[in-house]
Design a protein that fits this description.
seven-stranded mixed sheet, 22 helices, globular
Length: 596
């Protein structure tokens, strides 16, 4: 029997010899390569923390001792050692384990943090709570990467942690020289000096205790460093040096990201199991390069996500026109405002879920100053397999309140390129494009244009107006087809620019018996809510029903599965609309309608 088959909880590790722990590390790597290659996921980060995780679970006794992971995508080994091996057969799929810590899965997962730079603040709070309650019988351990230390929140926490020298707290700095990409800025140079054994130590200068650097792939050495840190009875930084992607040639030799997040692949050849269709991200990438060739004043900004947000081709073509600020979204946005004030047009490419972290900067530093900055939010709407914290389901709800911000939601690749061109040409204030993760699909041309609205379908009497937002246009057209098969007349329009709401929507809604909106954003404060307000403001009494994401966190699964769980399927929407029309029929006679 393999050693790994005997490990169902961390206590088992403390029964194994040093040689057995080393053998176990090899088995875990083989397990990771096999399972993650089949499903896709964060392979490189987890191959780099195998020995570190084993050491943590032999020195500390989870869940009594609290082990926090920042960022949580490096928690696969932790999950394996805490009894969740079976769930890896469906990693990041419905019924399998999440790709991040999950409180529903295990008592060993205290914090569900997949946004970087947060673990130290959680840990500071936990240490303060223990001090307040007089508890000295448990440890608090925060594992944070050097990439996450580029985030300002981590330094806010370090500043406060250093102010409590009597509060025990173990900070494990997992230094692999990278977040997604190589770590940037002065911190990266400082850590390189520490790894080389020279230079002043910023952690000690802050007032923290420090030990290291330690070889993170030497279990005994890490165990010794952790026990030493506990004995110091104060806030201690344990500097552990690891190699991301260690132990697999297809991650070790991947110069771009060391296998940070792989698609399903053959573990032997490293080749993808299936080809990827043209994505919204790739369309944006191509369009941005074309725009940059025409506009010398345009630069792009990323927060440690050059390749995932589609900026890699631009960096290859114009290396000095892509700025990577590290995991520092707030700095990125205010720096963009400064660039704009200096005569440059910034394009800030960021995941939708991460723009939440820079709302104040977008509101006060960009919008208040009416700066022409363009934001491009990838992974908007439902992302699915990355779980609740990575869905971009709040951007419309949060950002529609920003005065002067124009928001566009392209339905396909052609519209994305068009709207990006329009966005960077706008000089009166900030603009924003949002699109989902995944294929752009076939282009859906308009059959007509009505006062700035793209009409995608117009058939029969004026029964139902469907306002489709962004990439759900295809779904809206299927619903229209199903409603037409029931004898209903349907109009489908795409406003392209979601905010501000085009007043022509009120004119159209007035002519129809029923209006609905379809969006992959929260129904609370989403596009549908804004359109409903526009109808009220224009004294339009046509009933309106918003179809979107319910006000709850969504579990992990495929995008299609998560959308279906939200009722965003053609069958569900058609059934609901047919029921609404039946109710209207029961209350009043059907009018003859007016042709457009």
């Amino acid at each position: 029997m393999a050693l790994l088959d005997t490990v169902h909880d961390p206590a088992r590790l403390r029964e194994l010899t040093a040689a057995q722990l080393r053998d176990l590390a090899g088995e875990i790597r083989a397990f990771l390569i096999d399972r993650v290659s089949a499903s896709g996921g964060h392979l490189g980060p987890n191959l780099g923390v195998v020995e570190l995780t084993i050491a943590l679970h032999t020195v500390f006794e989870s869940p009594r001792d609290r082990v926090l992971w920042d960022t949580g995508h490096q928690s696969y080994v932790h999950k394996i050692l805490t009894g969740r091996q079976a769930g890896f057969d469906r990693l990041r799929r419905t019924g399998g384990v999440s790709g991040y810590p999950s409180r529903e899965e295990s008592e060993h997962d205290l914090v569900e943090n997949s946004h970087a730079s947060t673990a130290l603040s959680y840990a500071d709070g936990l240490a303060r709570a223990d001090a307040h309650l007089g508890r000295r019988d448990r440890a608090t351990v925060a594992v944070i990467g050097d990439g996450a230390l580029t985030g300002g929140m981590a330094w806010e926490a370090l500043n406060n942690i250093a102010g409590g020298p009597d509060r025990p707290l173990v900070i494990v700095l997992n230094d692999n020289g990278r977040s997604y990409a190589p770590t940037v800025g002065g911190l990266a140079e400082h850590l390189a000096d520490l790894r080389a054994g020279h230079g002043a130590n910023v952690f000690e200068q802050l007032g923290l205790l420090y030990t290291g650097p330690v070889d993170g792939h030497d279990i005994a050495a890490v165990q010794h460093a952790l026990r030493h840190a506990v004995a110091l009875e104060g806030p201690v930084v344990v500097h552990v040096v690891t190699a991301k992607g260690k132990g697999h040639p297809h991650t070790e030799n991947n110069e771009l990201d060391l296998g940070h997040a792989i698609k399903p692949m053959d573990p032997v050849t490293g080749r993808a199991l299936k080809s990827s269709p043209r994505s919204f991200t790739s369309v944006f990438s191509e369009a941005l390069v074309e725009l940059a060739q025409r506009r010398d004043d345009m630069v792009a900004i990323t927060a440690a996500m050059t390749e995932p947000t589609g900026l890699l081709p631009l960096r290859q073509r114009f290396p000095d026109r892509v700025i990577d600020v590290g995991i520092a979204e707030q700095h990125a946005v205010t720096m963009a405002a400064g660039l704009s004030m200096g005569g440059v047009h910034p394009v800030v490419a960021i995941y939708s879920t991460f723009v939440n972290r820079a709302l104040d900067q977008l509101l006060m530093d960009v919008a208040l100053h009416r700066r022409p900055v363009t934001f491009v939010l990838d992974r908007s709407g439902v992302t699915g397999d990355d779980g609740p914290s990575h869905n971009g389901m709040w951007d419309l709800s949060v950002l529609q309140v920003v005065p002067g911000l124009r928001i566009a939601a392209p339905r396909d690749g052609a519209r994305l390129a068009e709207l990006l061109t329009e966005a960077v040409a706008w000089q009166e204030g900030p603009t924003l494009l949002r699109f989902p993760k995944g294929p752009a699909g076939d282009d859906l041309p308009a059959v007509a244009v009505f006062n700035g609205l793209d009409v995608l379908r117009r058939s029969g009497s004026l029964d139902v107006l469907i306002v489709s937002i962004g990439a759900l246009a295809g779904l809206a057209l299927v619903v229209a087809e199903d409603l037409a098969a029931r004898g209903l007349g349907v109009t489908v329009v795409d406003p392209r620019w979601v905010t501000p709401v085009n007043s022509a929507l009120a004119d159209l809604a007035r002519r129809h018996r029923l209006a609905i909106t379809v969006e992959d954003n929260s129904r609370a404060g989403g596009a549908g809510s804004a359109i409903a307000q526009t109808l009220r403001d224009n004294d339009v009494h046509t009933p309106l029903r918003e179809f979107g994401i319910p006000r709850r966190f969504l579990g992990h699964g495929s995008r299609a599965e998560v959308l279906a769980a939200c009722g965003l399927t053609a069958q569900d929407i058609t059934k609901a609309v047919a029921g609404l029309i039946t109710d209207l029929d029961a209350r009043e006679p059907v009018g003859s309608g007016v042709e457009l």
